[in-house]
## 1
Amino acid sequence: MVEVSRYLRWHLNGHPIRMVDDIDRKTRDFVHVSDVVQSLLLIADSAADGEVFNLGFGTEVTMRELVNVIGSVTGQQPVIETIADITEDTYRLVSDISKITGLGYFPRVSLSEGLRHLAEELGQNPKLPVGATIFKKGQHGEI
């Protein structure tokens, strides 16, 4: 999820983490890129042609929990700026990874471990994200 890098970059630069809608109800399934690569290699080696799999970590995390983990791994109290008037975003996204675990896939990198590595890679004052996230036609501004 591209937003994780945006959130971390804002936070490390002392900016509020800008999120849309109800951060206690909105959930996501965060998976580290190395786990995605592991799953794709496993599918290439073991799955039948045309077989479809859900990829992810298999754990539902609220956006507030994500922000709390960001604060925990950086040692800095995060500030959240909620944009309540944008409600077009999907509330609940979590992967059912039961099929791919049947091939032997098990995610290895936890959310906190992945965020810790990303924060170390970005450094203290990383480049701020550019470009806007647009949820509906006609919306303006940086999210």
## 2
Amino acid sequence: MLTDPAATPVSFKASSSFGPVYHELCTNLMTGPQVDVRGLLTKELIGSHFQVDPLYPLCLRPGFSHRFALTETLQVICGRGDMRQLKKLAPAFEGMAPSYVTYGPRLAWQLQAVFDRLLADWTSRQAIATVYMPEDFHKGYPDCPCTMSLQFLVRLDDAQVPRVHLICTMRSNDIWYGTPTDIFMFTFLQRQMAASLGYEVGHYVHQAGSIHVYEEHWEKVIQMLATPTPLEFPKPELARYPGYSWDKVRVKAAEWLDGSIKGKTWVRGLDL
């Protein structure tokens, strides 16, 4: 058991699953203000902040592809930015995300550093992976990553159980295309980081400067909200992730992408 005289236990109470949170976000967006962004009419909320139980990261967005989200996540872990592979699963992705903003080449080595830092000092507040880089702004790219940073924090709960919390900070978040995939991806990283360190998962905190929905998706959101809300949102049976060190996680992610191991090794109950 971890002990540290300076560590104050954090009261831990499970957060809501993502399904009802997503439903509430979409409801608030559709009744909120709108703004013209780059000639596109957009409904937008500024400074959004919510928590999600990382064990229940799925929503009911029609057409959401678990396979695409999982593939992008595995590419992040092993450092790839394979647009061809992602485009096969979602043809529209290429037009939304230029190759230079893919997260894999940016994050893979940083996630390894996060693991190494927390392994050496579990109380560290420096276990941060940065996605958005200064050159994204200064080089005049027509687009840049939506995610700013991922901060992993390990803290003891009130039962003295160490938990890995993750705080994701975003500059911009498209509620239709982006948010469901982001929650899937980042909670996946959180669960695996916790397993690799030998700890339990804690809270997932998502904060966005702008969370929004473009006019082209308004009708889809309205139709989704008009569908009777189930009493129970989908809660997949998530296998306990293997306690591999992060360097082995990277190898296994590459093997998974290349078809060497089956996609349901770490995730059960999903249509992959």
## 3
Amino acid sequence: MIKMTRVSVVVPSKGCKYLKHLLRGLRDQSVRPYEVILVVKECNVKDVESLCKGYNLPCAVIEQERGYFTHALNMGKKEAKGDILVFTDDDAIPLQRWVERYAELHARYRDVAAISSRDFYVDLNGPRLAPTADDKTIVRIYRWLVRPWLEPPHPSLEKCRLGVYLTRRLGVAHGPFIPDRTCYSLPFRGVNMSFKASYVYDAWFPEHESLKRAPGNEQHFGLQLLLKGFDTLYVPSNPVLHAARGESLSRTTRHEVKQEFKVMQSLYAELLQKHGVQT
């Protein structure tokens, strides 16, 4: 058990109905987080503060008055004071050793800047687990047999070819070790990723007027670390449950999402060029 390590959990939230499940899961951890940073938007701050008190958690509730999703992530990161920063969503449900496990993993991999893990969809009306796209047999076969030659990694990310990487065209791709084997990888999903605070003090999530959901923001953040020479890992052994939601997670249209992907690609290119890497 890693008792000396302070773990901050950062959560962007709109005060959704699932938040109580996250807070209950954090309350019931084998090692409680040092602090829970909730960056809330479009909801009553006092209601969220009252909810936190009901679960007896060390919460800091920050109201987000401007910006989008990644602005909330940066606000939470700036506020966090822990040695390890863990990011998740307000509809996630951590398992009992989630915080403790991240502390153990970061102690084991001392020189690794980022460690991410997977999620499982769960039907809260059941409850029962539901497979994600990563678990489908056809997806696994594609990643082993087709993707390596059809969508090879960008030369600067060859080390991450078995995990999450950027392709030569700067798209986000998942390699054959995702979701069930440990490998070098860009951060997998924002619902379950962690960082050593001392390694990410000058790394930030992308803020852009066109980015509402900012798909690929996790990889943008991780790319900053790789370009500074740090390692980032994916491990499957510290999952969270993720509420299977019928409603859309955002109001962005398909066209808007496509445009956001293009913006993210331009931001990846800017990062690579800044570090003297050809795109």
## 4
Amino acid sequence: MFVTGDSLCTYVGAQMSNLGTAKHLVQVTTVQRNGTGLTRPDFFNWQVNAQQEMAARDPEAVVMIIGGNDGWNMTTPDGKTVGWSSQAWQDEYARRVAVVMATFSEGGKRPVYWSAPPTARDPKWNGVFSRINQAVARAAASVPGARYVDLFSGTSVNGAYNDYVPYEGQNVLARQPDGIHFSYQGSRLPAGLLLDAIGADFGAVR
């Protein structure tokens, strides 16, 4: 299994490996591309990277966790500049996600499990991430082999951001001081959600 994305994927990939390999059920390779996103292909082109990684690795499945750096304006194919609060921005983001999903999936050859950012402490970023999650869900519904795994709701507390989340009978400090990234211990929850989605296709993997 190939896990990639921005810095949000780092600890989640490590915990997926811990949870999955403990029973020798899944082998995880994680490659994080810190500071990248889909809104700035001039900085890092995820479609090109997806082509290169699939050609080099040919994994059975791909996990993508990205969006933490994606509050930038975008230019649509018809040349319009759109901001994150507009419907046109969400439409363009969904289009870009679908392109990269399809590149990873190669026509349904392998499943792609895509997660956008979780809730954020800062209200503006929480709004950006909410719109990104909506766009990813739309894109996944249109791409063969793509699945949207909801960490925005799945790691919240009663639908809202909280530094601490209940996990395995404990109240775990789930976030880093920036109010966005998961802590190492807190990454077990999103890792479990992703492994459960993968297990629905491959059988239990943790």
